[in-house]
């Protein structure tokens, strides 16, 4: 096996496609320092700038001093602190759901919920938007069930596929994201919910990139659409500034996941410092409308600037703005040239995105200024 590993890596390197971990340090807000140079960081998920917020940092320290650094066990053993229950209640109130559950990560939640659900109905068919996050594809594969992928955001086709194949299935699950992580576009949740109800399908929506950023009080797109989604997944690792994830839904659903979801049952409960940061973020985020408006305005400025320069920004209309390049080599070269000019814009390549759609994925934060966007646009003007 090691020979094969060495050969695979050598081949990647020969093609200039080797992935490596490149350390950096935080710089001034919205910036990072790499190899001694300060770069504008336009590729992180710290959408509300909360990773270095004083309130979050203080509560992290307070809860650590009070409760320790670790939760000592998984949730069903001795890992459930009173604070887990309190944060889950706060989260359910924030999301407007009956109940909520904490998970160690969005990856872990997505990788394990499908198996828990489909074991109740072995004849389940899962209908998934073709570009949903890799962790959901993994979770669906782990459930070993039939998966039907529908073209990205094509709800007419989803409706048709459900009409054609739905009646053959014992149960139907629909899976999508409310804001897509790589294109920055949105799903029409009002229509999707109607389709789900019409075909008696269970609806799962990943709100990783919408939580904190969109909807009333930052509660996400399902709240904005005013729809009832059966199961919402979201993370604390993006706009909420720390780590971990949640599932929000009915009390019945959460009670079931506590009994059946391996990602929750067999993993150590979130530790007090992280719980403290989540608790503080849940206090702050609802009041951050001004930050959300600033972020939306920055994204608009970036999209318009890129489009003026002739770039394709797909259907982005959120804080995630892709600059579609196409080829992997050209995308990597563009990212390198941007970095030389002081801008960090990370190249995203297949298999993370479909073949032929390599891109620079810009992801903005409310700590950025208009000048940062203009710097990027100027750098692009000089490099391309
Ligand atoms: N879902 C989506 C849509 C994501 O973009 C991500 C993170 N890249 C995840 C889930 C995984 O979340 P986490 O980082 O908490 O594991």
From TrEMBL:
The keyword Transferase applies. Homodimer. It catalyses: 6-carboxyhexanoyl-[ACP] + L-alanine + H(+) = (8S)-8-amino-7-oxononanoate + holo-[ACP] + CO2. GO terms for molecular function: 8-amino-7-oxononanoate synthase activity; pyridoxal phosphate binding; transaminase activity. Belongs to the class-II pyridoxal-phosphate-dependent aminotransferase family. BioF subfamily. CDD domains: KBL_like. This is 8-amino-7-oxononanoate synthase. It comes from Croceibacterium salegens. Pathway: Cofactor biosynthesis; biotin biosynthesis. It holds the Pfam family Aminotran_1_2. Gene3D superfamilies: Aspartate Aminotransferase, domain 1, Type I PLP-dependent aspartate aminotransferase-like (Major domain). The keyword Protease does not apply. One of its GO terms (biological process) is biotin biosynthetic process. It is an enzyme of class 2 (transferase). Residues 38-380 form the Aminotransferase class I/classII large domain. Its EC number is 2.3.1.47. Keywords: Aminotransferase, Biotin biosynthesis, Pyridoxal phosphate, Transferase.
């Amino acid at each position: 096996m090691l020979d094969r590993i060495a050969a695979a890596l050598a081949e990647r390197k020969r093609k200039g496609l080797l992935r490596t971990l490149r350390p950096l340090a935080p710089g001034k807000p919205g910036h990072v320092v790499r190899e001694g140079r300060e770069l504008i960081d336009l590729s992180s998920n710290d959408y509300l700038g909360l990773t270095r917020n004083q309130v979050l940092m203080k509560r992290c320290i307070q809860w650590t001093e009070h409760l320790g650094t670790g939760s000592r066990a998984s949730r069903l053993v001795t890992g459930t602190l009173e604070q887990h229950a309190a944060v889950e209640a706060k989260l359910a109130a924030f999301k407007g759901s009956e109940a909520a559950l904490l998970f160690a990560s969005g990856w872990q939640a997505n990788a394990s919920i499908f198996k828990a659900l489909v074991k109740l109905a072995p004849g389940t068919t899962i209908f998934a938007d073709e570009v949903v996050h890799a962790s959901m594809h993994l979770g669906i594969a782990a459930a070993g069930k039939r998966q039907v992928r529908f073209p990205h955001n094509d709800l007419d086709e989803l409706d048709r596929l459900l009409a054609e194949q739905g009646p053959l299935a014992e149960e139907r699950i629909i899976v999508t994201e409310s804001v897509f992580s790589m294109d920055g576009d949105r799903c029409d949740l009002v229509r999707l919910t109607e389709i789900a109800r019409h075909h008696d399908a269970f609806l799962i929506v990943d709100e990783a990139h919408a939580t904190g950023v969109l909807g009333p009080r930052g509660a996400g797109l399902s709240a904005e659409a005013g729809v009832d989604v059966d199961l919402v997944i979201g993370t604390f690792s993006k706009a909420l500034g720390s780590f971990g994830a949640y599932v929000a839904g009915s009390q019945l659903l959460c009670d079931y996941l506590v009994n059946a979801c391996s990602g929750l049952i067999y993993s150590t409960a979130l530790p007090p410092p992280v719980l403290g940061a989540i608790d503080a973020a849940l206090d702050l985020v609802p009041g951050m409308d001004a930050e959300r408006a600033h972020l939306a305005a920055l994204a608009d400025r970036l999209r318009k600037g890129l489009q003026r320069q002739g770039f394709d920004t797909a259907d982005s209309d959120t804080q995630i703005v892709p600059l579609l390049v196409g080829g992997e080599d050209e995308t990597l070269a563009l990212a390198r040239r941007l970095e030389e000019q002081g801008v960090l814009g990370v190249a995203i390549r297949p298999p993370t995105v479909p073949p032929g759609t390599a891109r620079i994925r810009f992801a903005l934060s409310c700590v950025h200024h208009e000048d940062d966007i203009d710097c990027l646009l100027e750098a692009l003007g000089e490099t391309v």
